[in-house]
Amino acid sequence: MKYIVIIGDGMADRPLQELGGRTPLQAAVTPHMDRLAREGVIGSVRTVPRGLHPGSDVANLSILGYDPRKFYSGRAPLEAASMGVELAEGDVAYRCNLVTLIFNKQKTQAVMEDYSGGHISTDEAASLIRDVNEKLGTSAITFYPGVSYRHLMVWRDGMADIECVPPHDIIGKEITDYLPTGSGEEVIRTIMRDSVGILDSHPLNKERVSKGRKPANSIWLWGQGRKPKMPTFKEKYSIDGALVSAVDLTKGLGIYAGFEILTVPGVTGYIDTNYTGKAEYSLNALERVDFVYIHVEAPDEAGHSGNCRDKVKAIEDFDALVVGTVLRGAPEFDKYRILLMPDHATPIEVRTHTDDPVPFVVYDSRMKRSNEGAAYNESLLERKDIMVVEEGYKLMDYFIKDLDDGF
């Protein structure tokens, strides 16, 4: 049996007036996902346990079969693993976003304009992070460049019990009430404040502004944690796996799960990503392993940006180029199952993650259902004939082990 998990990050949404009361999933043309919904087991799953922050880290950990209440230790340590940054016992890793702030004339207040620094390129960002590390790095603090706006700071023997707000949660808001709080807050606040002095006047940012682009004029620290301790996926399910993603967070989860990490040219984590390449590399990996996890970030990025048109396009490209490619290639294997779902919702109206239950489909090539009138979108959640999974981490057990017997 071959197992294929296909994640459209943040695909789920809420009805929008500009789409005539439909969600982006309902407005998008998605024949391949709709086919899976008609022929598979359909259901609703809560990927984020009640009371936990609805981050992609928590949600994807849950989808992979790990109870977040037991195994979650923070987002940044996962990204550190993907970046090859080894964390010692006392180290605390922080996600370090390059962001765009809009200041008042006195620079005493600032509004979070863009959590991604205008989706700054990886090469530009590396230059900025190197300068930040040169001027703010110490024997205890080190900055590591990542991809686009996503970077890392490691605080050796640092403090993790600080409340930090993700920058994508406060778009358009004045930042004062959202600065880090708790034991060690002054260290983190000082670093963030001092980064503005380095970045706001940086030649690279001046050039970006001159070309009409947003400057990456500050860092924002959040998502902190220490190195997690978790069993590998093979230890849990006795099968080898591979994972493809443009996002260090998801790749880090794959590393801790013991997966082969697939490197696909042209993956960006945005709407211009190499959708087809992700699917093709995953199908090829199934010659070596029995499980693949395909993660596509583009719908989530569009949700954070509040761009309805981009989100519909990202979903349609996901359906045509990822799901469609998988459905054309998977029949070469004798038996296969597909799990299709978002990790969480990222509604356009709020531009951040929510913990709403999301629709899923489990399709088995040997056991086709007939779900009359089903289409893959949020309307599945209202049907009476669906499976309801309240504890999201149990869905993987069903997908791998128990499909023949029911949940």
Strand share of the residues? 15-25%
CATH fold label of the largest domain: Alkaline Phosphatase, subunit A
Strand order of the largest sheet: 11-10-12-1-13-14-2-15
The proportion of residues forming helix, as a percent range, comes to 25-40%
Largest sheet: 8 strands, mixed
Whole-number total of structural domains: 2
Using only C-alpha atoms, the radius of gyration works out to 21 Å
CATH architecture heading of the largest domain: 3-Layer(aba) Sandwich
Unreliable spans are none
> What's the CATH H-level homologous superfamily of the largest domain?
Alkaline Phosphatase, subunit A
Q: How many DSSP E strands?
A: 15
Helix/strand order: EHHEHHHEEHEEEEHHEHEHEHEHHEEEH
Report what the structure shows.
The model has no long low-confidence stretch (mean pLDDT 95). It contains 14 helices and 15 strands. The radius of gyration is 21 Å and the shape is globular. The protein folds into 2 domains: 245 residues, Alkaline Phosphatase, subunit A; 144 residues, no CATH class. The two termini are 19 Å apart. Strand 5 and strand 6 form a beta hairpin. It has an 8-stranded mixed beta sheet, sandwiched between helices. The protein has 407 residues and is α/β, with parallel strands linked by helices.
